[in-house]
Every structure is written in C-alpha cells, then in structure tokens.
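thought: fold this chain, then report.
action: predict
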Amino acid sequence: MGTTYRGMADFMGRMAWRAQITEYQHREKVSQTMSVGPVQIEGSWLFEPVEGGTRFTMRTQGETGGLSAMLGPLIEGALKRRLEANLAQLKAMIEEEERAT
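observation:
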C-alpha cells in the first residue's frame, strides 16, 4: 500500500498518468487511485479462484472536470473499448503461454 507509479498511454493522444495503491490483499484485491489529466479515477482489481482458472473483475469510478465533463460519455465508451481490447490481448497472451508450457 502507498506505492505510486506513473506511465504514458496512447489514448485520444499521448497522456501521462499517475496512480497510488490504496489497498492490497495478496492474490485477492488491489485498489488504486489514478489521475489522468483532469480525470480522477478510483478502481479495484478483484481476483477470485474459479474452476479452471481465475476470475478477474475490474471496477472503476471516475470524475471529470472542465471540457472532459462534457465529453464524459464519449470518453467512457472509448475507454471501455480500449480496456476490452487490452484484456482480450492479455488473455490471449496468457493462453499462449499456457500452451507453450
């Protein structure tokens, strides 16, 4: 808990972001706060064992300000599509690794 990290994302242009871990439960849950420009996001990643693997659930809630507030629905839809594509790519990579071992 308390760890901070930063990165860059290519989403509607190149954007810098920063985050801080606010809760950590080994192999169960990670919660964080994130700042992406004027957008403040709180989120959590939940990991649950299920038959044959692990269920991953991501929850996010954010607040926008200024021009971002007016574009909120458009940004939300684009973020959702990007996240779904990223998770599909991650799943494919994990499955490929499992087949290789």
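thought: worth noting. The chain has a mean pLDDT of 85.
final: tokens above.
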